[in-house]
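To close the section, here is one more complete example, presented without commentary so you can practise reading it yourself. The ligand is 5'-deoxyadenosine.
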Amino acid sequence: MKNIKLAMPSLNAARMRRGNGVPTIRYTLESKYENIGAGKTYHIFTYGCQGNEADSEVMAGILEQIGYTKSTDPMNSDVVILNTCAIRENAEQRIWGVLGQLKGRKREKPDMLIGIAGCMPQEENATNKILESYNFIDLVIGTHNKGHLPKLIHDAYKSKMKVVEVLSCEGEILEDAPKIRESKHKAWVNIMFGCDEFCTYCIVPYTRGRERSRAKEDIIAEVEQLVKDGYSEITLLGQNVNAYGKDLEGDYTFGDLLYDLDKTGIKRIRYTTSHPRDLDEKTMMAMAECKSVMPQLHLPVQSGDDYILKKMNRKYTFEQYMTKVNRLKELVPDLALTTDIIVGFPNETEEQFQNTLKLVQAAKFEGAFTFIYSKREGTPAAIMPDDVSEAEKHDRLNRLNVLINEGYLNGHKRFVGEVVEVLVDGQSKNGEGMMCGYTPHLKLTHFKSDDLSLVGKIVKVKVTEAKTWFMIGELCE
Ligand code: 5AD
Ligand code: SF4
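Output:
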């Protein structure tokens, strides 16, 4: 099959960072695409971070706008899109596996359109592999161009060729695109895209492009609309939300945005992810002063060893990280702090790993995503010598997780006997007649009830039991 290559990815081009001025594009639909999905169905697989979940909501919105209806059955859908993640090798392995299954199905159902979107197509190696060995994929879409979906689908149908459009440049900001949100009471709100940090292990600055912030007016308007639509909680999204506004004119920062969003009437504001170096006093003050900003923070530390942190290009030390944490705990004494940690970074010694364990104890994390370092082609760390065996890396991860799990349990124990406010998500998966939701501190809480009218409401629950992964309580009202 021939390919239409509208644009191919290049890690070298993605490395470039130009000056200010990324254009904001207002999404509009050309009338010729209006009904191309009429009578057809779609299914989107979403992998990876909340950024991908938010992107999938936009792709679903666009697909429904052009006539497609959602299907829960991928193997019988007319359009199947895999919104992929490239952050670690095992994320990619899973996706190649699903593609293998779709390949068989496509033989039986040749008019099925299969698209691959998200971070994997932004990698040169992955896209070359798709072009060489995965010929049944019809559409290759990068992270910057989901707004072109109607045209790309149209071209793929018309030409019966593979359509590849992956832009390596910084992309634009897409406003006004339709969205089908997964939840009716909790919403993702992108405030910025991309990352300029270039941590040496990380592929994101290449796959997601340069940092670019949405205009505050657009963000505030979106949140005001969510309040009108009955939403209770928003999570502000960005790879490094603390850098919000740096690329815009003026000196409006992330802290200012929190103060402004607090005035919209939304009940709960969360944000992720933060970079410890950029977490500033104003943001911390906003956490203390704004009623709607929840007392919970995810602050990835990655390592507790100064030399490894330097090799990771994280631009802070153990001491500096702890100074921020201690200041924030002064301002928000009941703060629930969580983090990300990588073990087995190239040549990490046992002593350096021990420093990570020390930091875990000092920071009293109440949860963490912990990872074994995964080599990402094209990043600086990929060519660093590494003498740590796989067995040793696994052993470090296990030892770290023992401490982290104690942190989870302690984070739940401190609420036993207290009444907490739970924003109800729905029925619990583990247990008949149980419902569940999250507290302000982001603690998953199960309680006895089968009253589905509680979904989307904030209810009072008295915590009776703490487990490692959740709390159990009794409904007060
Ligand atoms: N290997 C392992 N973990 C990684 N992360 C990012 N890149 C890698 C990698 N190459 C982790 C970091 C980051 C989280 C989203 O994923 O901890 O904070
Ligand atoms: Fe990756 Fe570092 Fe950017 Fe996070 S801050 S996305 S770890 S480069």
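Once you have examined the tokens, check your reading against these statements. The radius of gyration is 23 Å. The chain has 13 helices and 22 strands.
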